[in-house]
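Morning run. Coffee first, then this:
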Amino acid sequence: MNRLEPDFLEFLNSLPIKGGARTRISNCLYAEGITSFDKLVSHTYDDLLRLPYMGRGFLQVLIGALTSRGLHLASVSAQRLWRCPTCGQIVQPAGALQDAADE
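And here it is:
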């Protein structure tokens, strides 16, 4: 597994939470293969909330720190898009439109 990217590790270490909790979050993200900003922002709020030790409070701190860097987590509707293997066009599955309306 890849190591945490240096700028991402520095970001995690700068989070305004106590040391033990910061270590748990770092380990939790690392265990899920989230080792960079790109990998982190490809996840939704709900994806991250399902991770062990990632409670709502920790997640709010993480989101606030991301926002201060101009970054945001993925949206649910964006994750419903997929690339057609035949034509390469990005499309939204038919059922996703109704699901998005329900949110």
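Helices lie at 6-13, 19-31, 37-41, 45-49, 56-68, 76-79, 94-102. Good start to the day.
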